[in-house]
């Protein structure tokens, strides 16, 4: 089989992977604080005795577009958005720490502040507990206060402070569950007092649906070009075999 087929197949495979990532981005265009997935690939020359005119397509480490999404104001006390590059720390089921910008928070039946998916939100001293029946409010510095039923406005009690961190550029990697974690070798993150918390608002997805649709069309055309190369290589092989058979 002509080596051209192998090189074209490597390109077609990466285009399919890219198309899957774009489709996933488009499906999450309305997901709170979703960060668009970015799949990178590069050309690697084929090393051998032949002239280096062929190159395989190899995938690079996938990343994410970390730019902030648009804000939508909900007026709900437990909805929070973060300015700048701030991230909320949450506790995973295995006890490790992960990060998210999806600030649609809730109080569990046992009085724990959680994400919409039920993961405990970390405070400056661990998970944040909320007294039963309390009305919760969150300040611009991440301070969580609670007011019991029937208490006056001056009866607010601080129950914790959101653990908000600012990771270094390229310091986070997306997990299969959609939460971000520190890349290997990155130092543990400390609380960042400079990040402002916007209460009553949520960050939207940073996916641009129009750009994603255009990219899907471009990927489809790239894939079609690779298929034409494979078909052309196969046709050349068949003709060559026919000529050799005649001899």
Automatic annotation (TrEMBL):
Per the UniProt record, the source organism is: Cupriavidus metallidurans (strain ATCC 43123 / DSM 2839 / NBRC 102507 / CH34)
Q: Name one GO biological process term.
A: bacterial-type flagellum-dependent swarming motility
Instruction: Answer yes or no on keyword Hydrolase.
Output: no
NCBIfam families from the UniProt entry: FlgEFG_subfam, flgF, PRK12640.1
Give the encoding gene's name: flgF
Q: What is this protein called?
A: Flagellar basal-body rod protein FlgF
* Keywords, sorted A to Z: Bacterial flagellum, Cell projection, Cilium, Flagellum, Plasmid
GO cellular component annotations, sorted alphabetically? Answer: bacterial-type flagellum basal body, rod
Q: Does the keyword tRNA-binding apply?
A: no
Q: Which family does it belong to?
A: Belongs to the flagella basal body rod proteins family.
């Amino acid at each position: 089989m002509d080596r051209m087929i192998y090189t074209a197949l490597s390109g077609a495979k990466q285009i399919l992977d890219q198309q899957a990532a774009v489709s996933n981005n488009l499906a999450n265009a309305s997901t709170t604080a979703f960060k668009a997935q970015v799949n990178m690939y590069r050309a690697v020359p084929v090393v051998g005795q032949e002239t280096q005119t062929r190159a395989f397509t190899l995938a690079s480490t996938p990343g994410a577009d970390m730019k902030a999404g648009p804000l939508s104001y909900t007026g709900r006390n437990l909805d929070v958005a973060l300015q700048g590059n701030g991230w909320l720390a949450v506790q995973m089921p295995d006890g490790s720490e992960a990060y998210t910008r999806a600030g649609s928070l809730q109080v569990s039946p046992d009085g724990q502040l959680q994400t919409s998916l039920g993961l405990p939100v970390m405070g400056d001293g661990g998970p944040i507990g909320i007294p039963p029946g309390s009305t919760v409010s969150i300040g611009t510095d991440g301070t969580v206060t609670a007011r019991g039923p029937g208490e006056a406005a001056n009866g607010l009690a601080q129950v914790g402070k959101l653990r908000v961190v600012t990771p270094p550029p390229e310091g986070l990697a997306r997990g299969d569950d959609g939460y971000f974690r520190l890349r290997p070798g990155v130092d543990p993150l400390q609380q960042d007092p400079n990040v402002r918390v916007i209460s009553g608002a949520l960050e939207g997805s940073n996916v641009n649906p129009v750009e994603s649709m255009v990219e899907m069309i471009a990927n489809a055309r790239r894939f079609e070009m690779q298929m034409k190369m494979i078909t052309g290589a196969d046709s050349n092989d068949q003709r060559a075999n026919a000529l050799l058979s005649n001899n």
